[in-house]
Hints:
Bound molecules: 4-hydroxy-3-methoxybenzaldehyde, fe (iii) ion
Oligomer: single chain
Structural class: mainly beta
Shape: globular
Helix content: under 10%
Distance between the termini: 40 Å
Amino acid sequence: MAKFPATPSYQGFHAPSRVEADITDLEIEGEVPKDINGAFYRVAPDPQLPPRLGDDIWFNGDGMISMFRFENGRIDFKQRRARTDKFVLEERAGHALFGAYRNPLTDDPSVEGRYRGTANTNVLTYGGQLLALKEDSPALAMDPLTLETKGYTDFQGQVKSPTFTAHPKIDPRTGDMCAFGYAAKGLLTRDMVYYELNEQGKLQREVWFEVPYYCMMHDFGVTEDYAVFHVIPIVSNWERLRAGLPHFGFDTTKEIYLGVLPRKGDARDIRWFRAPNCFASHVMNAFNEGTKVHIDVPMAKGNMFPFFSDVHGEPFDPQKSLSYMTRWTVDMDSRGEAFESMTRLTEVSGEFPRIDERYASAPYRYGFLLSQDFSRPLQLPGRSASGMMINTLARLDHATGTAQTWWSGTTSTIQEPCFIAKPGRSGEGEGYLVAVVNRLLESRSDFLIFDAERLADGPVATAKLELRLRGALHGNWTPAHQLPTAAQAAS
Ligand code: V55
Ligand code: FE
């Protein structure tokens, strides 16, 4: 009998949901703009079974994929499991076989050497497939319409790394997918590999190199001419794993590095820049002006992950965990290892940065962010799964340093938004923003649609769900013309 522990990871809004669902024609308040046609996918960790070790962290839950299919002012909802190898093995066994987050030394011996991936971090379509991603494993291919799992893919044997990032980037100039794997020659190795694949699934580039120290390489930056890798002090080693600890801890004594790889170059052309200890994980966007390379990150002074504790035992400091969008600039033509600058772009604190992706890897003006407005506390003990109290959506304007915001009220929190371009419009930010909100009092979720240029006006439409959607990590939009037709899917 499944009995989940009475720990914060499994309580209240974070209780496992485990619901697969189909809802045809969601009830709508307001009006869904008729020109939105396509599918929004998102993925949340949602444990199938009680944890093997008594408790677990949010980052280790099994992936649950949701699809909001928009057509003609109507939205259909579908939710299915990412049936990873881990999920299927544990389903068969009837209990958890895999232990702590990215620590195979805590697993049942029967699953030694199996992929431990949960496919719980990001989901996007590429080349006609839906890819559910976890950075410790290969990409999991799923059907974009039925959400049926096909299985792990190595892109016809072209991707040799056993790991594939959860944050690939699509270069809007070429349509190519830029990606990487870390721990690419095995657990805890410093080996990395950078890939570019085209929409036909053909490998265009592959560059192998080493990072200065092993760490969580969660995201990266892609510009027209460079791939940019930030090495930040969320570290691990065999000692931690042998002690049965979660994979990562934060080390305040290490410098950070920025590795810049010319996209047409090879490993010898990488330059490594250095800066003092800090935290940054996600990347809003990156671009280059000649040899000057800019990467915009939500940067914090200290650790943002309370569940990856300090390796020297320092207590978690919520003040130091606040992140602010910051532009890091390095010059590939400079001498020495110093950054040229680190410039704060806004006084709005927050994480989960998004953009109008037609402007990815190019100079851009607008960014979207989940933010915390501490002057408007929740009336409930409503911590988000990340540990942050996310009550505000923000649209940042980098040209003016100003922000438009929308507050979700005293009993709701917000999940990562996604931008949807308005068909027929090419101006940056001309489109919609969608986001799931957590109705904490009612233990259910709503799905909101905003005019991305009028965020402060509030949602133009609210799709009601009588379901609770557990806190997601990331999601993406696929316009209808990039979805297979039902006829193609049936063949
Ligand atoms: C993140 C999320 C993960 C993970 C590593 O920063 C990094 C986010 C949901 O899993 O394994
Ligand atoms: Fe992420």
